[in-house]
Every structure is written in C-alpha cells, then in structure tokens.
Amino acid sequence: MKNKIKSNLWLYFSLVVFALILVSASGIALILLIATYFDIIPKEGGTVYLIIFIALFIAIISSGISSIVGKKFLQPIIELRKSMKRVAQGDFSVQIEEKEAAGEVQELYSDFNLMVRELSGIETLRNDFISNVSHEFKTPIATIQGYIQLLQNKNITEEERDSYYKRIFEGNQQLATLTDNILKLTKLETQSIGYEEKDFRLDEQIREVLLFLQPKWEKMNVNLNIQLDKIIYSGSEELLYQVWLNLFENAIKYNKENGDIVVNLQDDKWNILVEVSDAGIGIEERNYGKIFEKFYQEDNSRKTSGNGLGLSLAQKIVELHQGTIGVKSKKELGTTFTITLPKQISSSL
C-alpha cells in the first residue's frame, strides 16, 4: 500500500507541474497574440514591457497554483505530523477525519487511526496489568508484614508463633509463584521463542506431576481416576510440565472434600487428547473465555489461593505447541479441561 500511495502522489505532483508549465506557456502565448493584435505592446522598444508583463503574469499564476498545491497535498501531511506528535506525547484519543482527504491520503489516515486505536488498547492493557500486579503483590506483602508485627509480641504462645511463621512462609511462596509466573508469561508473550524439542513419555510426565502434588490431594481426600495411554510426544518437556501442574493444582484447589479427579490421556489418529475433570465448584458458562485472561479468578472473594495466571500461562504453552485448550463446566458439579496437541508440529516454530 505504501508504494502505491507514494507512486500516485508523485504522479499527482508531476501532473500539477506539467499543468503549471502548460498553463503558463499557453497564457504567455495567448497574451502575446492578443497584445500584438490590438497593438497594446509597442512594436518599437516594446521588448522590456513584454518581459515585465510576462514575468508578472507567470508570478501571479505560479503563486495561485502553488497555493492550491500546498493546500491540497501539504496540509494533510502537516495534519498527520501534528497528530503523530500528540500520540508521541501519550495522547491515544487522536483520530483524523478521513472523509475530507483525497483517496490515498484517506487510506493513510485510516491506517494511522487504526494504529492509534491499537496503541490505545495496548496502553489500557498495560495499565490494567500494572494495577493487577500491584494488587497481587500488595496482598501477600501485607500478610507478611501483619504477621511479622504479631511476632513482636512476646506474650504469644509457641503454637501461635509457629502458626504465624507458617503464614509468613505461605505469603513468601505466593510472592515467589507470582513472580515466576509473570516472568514466564511475559517471556512467552513478548518473545518469538521456540523451544528445545525432544521425545519424552507424556504419560510418565503426567504421573510425575500427580505424585508431586500428592500431599495436596491427599489432604483433601481426593479420589484419582487415571487412564493414560502410553504416548511418546515430541515437544518441550519443561513447558508442558507447567501446563499439567497448573491444571491439576486447579482441579485440587477448587474441588470438594472427598471429590473426584479424572485424568484421561488418549492417542487418536492425528492428535493427542488430555482431559482433566474435577467435581468442584464449577465455572459459569459466561465466564469460560475470561478464565484464560491474566489475573482473572472466578472466585472474586479471593478465598482460594492463587494469582489468576496459571490458566493464561497454560494456554500460551499449548498454543506454542499449536494445540488448543477448552473448558466445559457446570456450577457446583465440576469442570473439564480438554487439551488437544497435534502429533506433528509445524517446522515454523
């Protein structure tokens, strides 16, 4: 599009210059004919008058045409420059009127307006991100500070002291997890990173994650129903470990006492399917798309631990493997996440 605009503008300027010369030459010829015909210019010694008259005429015509050219072609550029300066100063509300501009300039204005709207959206997301990060950091920090103040009291019991230390440790772990997730998510979003692809046993990896989380699901007396096909998958072992870790932690955290968790790993003709189901609190259907947004939590009361980054991180990793992640849920009955991974990943990664 840029080449088209550039070439057409040069064509317009060339036509204007050609028209300027043609009009000037035709005007001069016409004036000379008329002046000679009516004896306006003396035949003897009239050369000086003719030159002066022609110079004045050309100056007037050139000034008029230059004014028209400047208004038609240079004014839109000036308007665009002023608007770009406002955007550079952080004003993303700028929009240039497109209807009054010429065809190619109108396209340029349209692209500029689209760019500003996109920048405005990015700025809004950035501000929301900073606000959410500040809130997420503020909560555990305030918790740690509160319990440190309580520990200054020399009259507390040993049991209370141990409880306070435990709360401080949990707050520290929450901060560490939040920082780690933010760094991972930022890396996935801002860098066109690939990954070290290797063959590994996907079913063994899922078992490894479940064993790692055993203290948590045993504490809630959760029943596991695991059906895993033996599958060798080629991908990032490190990144996919994070996907299963986030999904299983959510299945435990939002489950009920004595609830069930079902994990299925199936190998079909073209894809690998992983289903993780729980019998927990469930998700409202209208919030299906929101749960993959950064910092979103279905439980707005924040009674459950977490920072709302796990599913967003999992989605990015699955998409990096050219897969998909979907959710189905019923309130108070449970949730099922389905991950589809293609067996053959495009070499463009």
TrEMBL record:
Q: EC number(s) of the enzyme?
A: 2.7.13.3
- Source domain of life is Bacteria
| Ranges for domain Histidine kinase | 132-345
| UniProt membrane topology term | Multi-pass membrane protein
User: Coiled-coil regions in this chain?
Assistant: none
- Name the SUPFAM superfamilies for this protein: ATPase domain of HSP90 chaperone/DNA topoisomerase II/histidine kinase (SSF55874), HAMP domain-like (SSF158472), Homodimeric domain of signal transducing histidine kinase (SSF47384)
List residues traversing the bilayer: 12-38, 50-74
Tell me a GO cellular component. Answer: plasma membrane
InterPro entries for the chain: HAMP_dom, HATPase_C_sf, HATPase_dom, His_kinase_dom, HisK_dim/P_dom, HisK_dim/P_sf, HssS/ArlS-like, Sig_transdc_His_kin-like_C
CDD domains for the chain: HAMP, HATPase, HisKA
Q: Where in or outside the cell is it found?
A: Membrane
Looking at its record, which EC class is this enzyme? transferase
Q: Which reaction does it catalyse?
A: ATP + protein L-histidine = ADP + protein N-phospho-L-histidine
Which molecular function terms from Gene Ontology are attached? Answer: phosphorelay sensor kinase activity
The protein's UniProt keywords, in alphabetical order, are: Kinase, Membrane, Phosphoprotein, Transferase, Transmembrane, Transmembrane helix, Two-component regulatory system, Virulence
Q: Name one Pfam family in it.
A: HisKA
Q: Which residues form the HAMP domain?
A: 71-124
Q: What does this protein do?
A: Member of the two-component regulatory system HssS/HssR involved in intracellular heme homeostasis and tempering of staphylococcal virulence. HssS functions as a heme sensor histidine kinase which is autophosphorylated at a histidine residue and transfers its phosphate group to an aspartate residue of HssR. HssR/HssS activates the expression of hrtAB, an efflux pump, in response to extracellular heme, hemin, hemoglobin or blood.
Q: What is this protein called?
A: Heme sensor protein HssS
- List the top taxonomic levels of the source: Bacteria, Bacillati, Bacillota, Bacilli, Lactobacillales
